[in-house]
Aldehyde dehydrogenase
Amino acid sequence: MEISWDPRTGTPVGETPTTSAEQVEATLAAAAAAARVVASVAPGQRAEWLRAVAEAIEQPDVASELVTIADRETALGLPRLQSELARAAAQLRFYADVAEEGSYLRATIDGRTATSPDLARVQVPLGPVAVFGASNFPFGFGVLGNDTASALAAGCPVVAKAHPAHPQLSARLAEVAAAALAAAGAPAGTFALVAGFAAGTTLVTSRHTAAVAFTGSQRGGLALWRLANEREVVIPVFAEMGTVNPVVVTRAAVVRLDAIAAGAVASFTLGAGQFCTKPGLLLAPAGSKAAARIGAALEAAAPSAWHLTGDIAAAATTGVAELTAAGATVVSEVPAPATGWGARPTVLSAPVAALTRGSRLLEECFGPVLVVAEYADDKELDHALGELQGALAASIMTSGADDPETPGLIARLAGLAGRVAVDEWPTGVAWTWAQQHGGPWPATSAPGATSVGAAALDRFTRPVAFQNTPHHTLPPALQAANPWRLPRRVDGRMVLVPDVDETAASGRGPSS
Amino acid sequence: MEISWDPRTGTPVGETPTTSAEQVEATLAAAAAAARVVASVAPGQRAEWLRAVAEAIEQPDVASELVTIADRETALGLPRLQSELARAAAQLRFYADVAEEGSYLRATIDGRTATSPDLARVQVPLGPVAVFGASNFPFGFGVLGNDTASALAAGCPVVAKAHPAHPQLSARLAEVAAAALAAAGAPAGTFALVAGFAAGTTLVTSRHTAAVAFTGSQRGGLALWRLANEREVVIPVFAEMGTVNPVVVTRAAVVRLDAIAAGAVASFTLGAGQFCTKPGLLLAPAGSKAAARIGAALEAAAPSAWHLTGDIAAAATTGVAELTAAGATVVSEVPAPATGWGARPTVLSAPVAALTRGSRLLEECFGPVLVVAEYADDKELDHALGELQGALAASIMTSGADDPETPGLIARLAGLAGRVAVDEWPTGVAWTWAQQHGGPWPATSAPGATSVGAAALDRFTRPVAFQNTPHHTLPPALQAANPWRLPRRVDGRMVLVPDVDETAASGRGPSS
């Protein structure tokens, strides 16, 4: 059994069953059996399935029940969880739209003749995807989060693992989703949930599994990646892992450091600091007294929240001790709530010289913990940035659009991170076409992948080229009549579909 | 020193120096130093560099010298090598065109305002790429082959390793390319060559290397993949590895089996069978006597050729013995040339029941060797296909466009291979927009990757999103004025550039 805990009290509030190895294999076999149908229906059909799931979780009585369960298991609070549920529904609809638009199929046709193209290429779904959702976003990155939604959109059945931080919510979400999918006509096996640590191992090693998507810690993600690499048939693992997301304050921005300090506190304490994009290191100009000023802002804000699990709470406490041992000094901390797994927001300062490759100071500390270091000059800043690991995101705090340091810092941080923000904090990941949520190793196990945004679908397909294949035997995406109305590349040129695309910059008509 | 051998005699014909570990590191450091310039110039500028290399190797005196060196080291014959050199030049120009067209950058802009987009995303080059070319295509897949051309096109400096099967050709090609690149204005460090086994190891482990591209055997590719996975900062390895590329003859196609037999012989003996896409297994209907008829065609054709190296020749001989030990019977073989590393084309037959996962019969035998098996019915064929490893390519030989078995076999083989050909043989890989040269594990170490075709560039970039970043500080690909004239996605919709794209199906003008 998996125990459900209340973080506010640190006591058990329920139990959910775990899944045996045989049940996991049977679940994956059902997913594999469903894979051909899920892959072969039109993307617009799968879009309807996703929209049905979105609608189901937004039903007022269901939403209310889900948020109540989630709050009891995560202590994230009703307002945050209500908006996160709405976000999960919006994401499901977004990936539905991306699937329907069809560019992700990259349909490409060379040398079409009367009987067949010389060569035609399309992305095909990989097959069943094992999804390991995150602890910290029970809706947005949980069993119905970005990974599940983008895998289903791309045409892959999903078997998700319940997160031990919210097993009851995982189970209820899966029930709601499975019912909605069935009612919408998706085949049995399209989506299922398993629970328990051993079930997770089987998910990665089973011959039925074609890919793994993971959101969480470096330790967890790399363990799954290693396990998959030991398979006879190695499968891709897309692990999106928490990082130290550096923030650089420019010299000219010191004039607005009080506002920056308030923003830093809001960002690193958001959700008890349990964000994979939490700013973990802030680099400010020497003499700015940034650590003290952020510490003062922290004490003024005095946020109060709980960690998701006892393990996370313990790791945050240990983490602060490790940061101190690595050369940092606690500048300010706010007491934790007296009951349960209370979080203790903490600002530390560290000498920039201590920021060396391999130091604990350059590893994530999951929780409301920020390390501040002061750099003397460009050289010292550049050296410190060169020591950092790859990151999901990085921010620059400037004095405004004409800050002379901005262009150089953007170029520098783009080499370290998957996303660079200017005068915004790294927390907060929009689900849009342009989003990149990933980054150089070890931010993700596959640096070209994103787990949020339209390109998230790309992880779960592979290309197949069809050579000299008669038109009528090609997949619909490549057929001469273009029944799915896809944007396609024909003989090297993009051809858009008028009712779908508005080619604002193109004035050429069909006869040109 | 690395020794150059003449396959026709099996004797040494020259020596080339190997590169010390210090030299390799210095070469990679120079590549890393060049990386920012190579990445930041306009794709059209890099296209000019590639075209300059193409022009340089096609200079008549240079081409003649290169082909002479290649023939002495590979015994592939002047006509094949002349056409392969022309192919290498055409490939360089193709990747230049793909870079210039710019879709590979996937420029995506969300929510553009007067000051900045909310979020804008573009692919950025990874950095120095280590290229391990193939033995069997000294021009097309060698030090200036698809991997080098696509990496340079994508904006990455390349350090290539000389192949021990053609060290002198590798060295001369590198000299010609380096001179052409320098004359065209590419920075020092854009392209360089190293030689020797130890140099290859350093190429993979150096902190300067951002990605590895490899073409060759499963053993070689997986060794590099494992080495890269042990790094502190793991880097992607795109290994395109030789496979058994199955060919299925339908029941209705038996009426034209003599033509198929002749085609099979031409395909599996092409270049002494030294193709990663060589058909290694042919499945024909029971009673067709396919093995005997292909054997007869082999004896009639009696092709004569040499292996590239003594190791390859020995492995082919060992391979036939291993296939026999695994249950196959030699049906027909043609004597090898009396001198040097002569190849002995061989047809074997095997009971379909012996085609079980893990059998040597389902592993590549590099050389002019084909295993033929007969299937009794759909069930037996389907079972055999289910035992196969992932493959680069697969072919179906049909009775014509109305063969009823074609659609089902296309769907089945698309699950196994990166390319499915109908009534054409798997050998021969066109460098076009729609090509896919890769496949499920172990055909490639990354199933979504191709080493040939426009998508080959995708291996060497990663996405970066810029959030709230002022227009003038964005990379050119994302600037409001679109200075590189790229096709871009703006607020979810593709926007093509009139002078570049003809949107044949779109009749909407700029004012719509």
Notes: The mean pLDDT of chain A is 95. The longest strand of chain A covers residues 117-125. DSSP finds 13 helices and 19 strands in chain A.
